[in-house]
């Protein structure tokens, strides 16, 4: 979350709704990657007759079964402990039964918790591979029960998560047990955090999150986690969630032109703060990737300091999400005075 001072001076977004066509604009295909923690702690302290690993696989199988009617959805899986392994890529299985057999064949082999290595493997072997279809809504679901092992790239987790998200991937984390570092997981997930981080007290609760995952993937209205309240009575710890309603891009009901008016002055914002604003914009636009790639949403940018400067027009990166993200990431800091009026007025010339 950006400090309120940056919200006040850094970004102004002007949204112009264009009439939609007679039919709603359907977004593109969906590629889903399960990243599954199989470190040794998964099997530690099992309190019920059903193993924790079975709870994990059963929940993922239920998601696959429930989306069988969606022929546009494909799945891949990575498992990880000390090292990460690509179990199958997005183009490996098309049949529901094949997928279920493949998921149930994944072994709980223990080890440390190299979450960084797993996310890097997702970036190099899944999201950057030919198996990942162009113009898809990409979703990564990470399921873990603890913190990354200190001796296994733990310090690289946040930068690696940022690299994955910069590709336009929606990164969702399901954290199970109180051993999970909530603050760290909230840092690596996509924004808004309330719609992408889900905390469960134990593995048996995974059965109750299947519907939430289905709604995240297929794009239907959903009640998401907004807050976590943990209470302890005796030896029992209960985590309660506060709800909010949101909509994940599945169908675009309107077209829109979005002009970002970006303060690049040296008034109340230094270069490091400017970089933080650019990262925020990348996160924001990533949430709109599917509708940008269909042409439903066009994005332009103006930067301003003493005067206003065009960065790119609404038609420059139409349907070109990768080009748009690169242009935002490389938008230069100007410095100087803060003439907000000239920046806000220049957008009308688009």
Gyration radius, to the nearest Å?
A: 21 Å
Supply the CATH architecture of the largest domain.
3-Layer(aba) Sandwich
Give, in order, the helices and strands: HEEEHEEHHEHEHEHEEEEHHEEHH
Shape: globular
Calculate the terminal CA-CA distance, rounded to whole Å. Answer: 29 Å
The percentage helix is 25-40%
Beta-strand portion reads 25-35%
Task: Please state how the strands of the largest beta sheet are arranged side by side.
Answer: 5-4-3-6-7-8
> Residue-averaged pLDDT, rounded?
78
Tally of separate helices: 11
Helix/strand class:
alpha/beta
CATH topology of the largest domain: Rossmann fold
Q: Return the domain count.
A: 2
Low-confidence sequence ranges: 1-27, 221-230, 237-253, 342-350
Q: Briefly, what CATH class of the largest domain?
A: Alpha Beta
Number of strands: 14
CATH superfamily of the largest domain: von Willebrand factor, type A domain
Tell me about the biggest sheet? 6 strands, mixed
